Amino acid sequence: MSNRIAACQFEPVIGDVDANLESVRALGSDLGTDVAFAVFPELCVTGYDLETVPDLATSVPGPITDSLAEIAGSIQCPLAVGLPERDGDDLFNTTVVVSGDGVEAAYRKQYPWGAEAEVFSSGEEPTTVETPVGTVGLCCCYDLNFPEVGLEYAQLGCDILAVNAAWRTSYLSDWRLLSRARARDGPFYVVASNHIGDQHGREHAGHSLVAGPDGRIHSERTTGESVVSAPVEESILEQAHEQNPVRATRLSNQD
């Protein structure tokens, strides 16, 4: 049975949706049959460029998610992928989870960062999705800075927090620290996918990773287009909940 989660990193081409979908397809083909859920970077379908994304934003579901579903179906693995979503007059920085059957979930980034707030509306709620490796909560980039986001997902019983990002090299230490901290907060696995390369002066850090519910980084890729994966082990989740029983304590304090 497939039990691995994966984070995929690459450098999107700004404004070239077709090229970026091909990168998703190529990395998806490298996942292998033991990966049951994979995460791709924030806004990777269009590239991270706030001037470009309004013209490339898509409905969800829509033509772009149809293409992603075809890729997910061909490799038989659900994918979490970042794209700009158009909903009426509103634009959202959205993470879609797609399988061969189509869109399984869509999460709208709750905390736009910096100039993003001039382009994107804020999402209003956490979003979970059931996968072959457990319940996954969705989180995007700057959301990682907010412990309450992770705590909401812990209260929803998540086994995994999936994070996609366009995180800069200048904040690399924060990326690694916050990924580990949210994993410990859960406790749950964190699978975190980041951009690489330079996009209009933004140097992205890479370092996509999987952190375990003990807060330890189990696997990590520093630079280059690549896939990083690690197994989700129920015994490790159970042990983490016993050694760090914050979920049970929170529930008892609410009684």
UniProtKB/TrEMBL annotation:
CDD domains: nitrilase. It holds the Pfam family CN_hydrolase. Residues 3-234 form the CN hydrolase domain. Residues 200-225 are annotated as: Disordered. Keywords: Hydrolase. Transmembrane segments: none annotated. InterPro entries: C-N_Hydrolase, C-N_Hydrolase_sf. This is Predicted amidohydrolase.
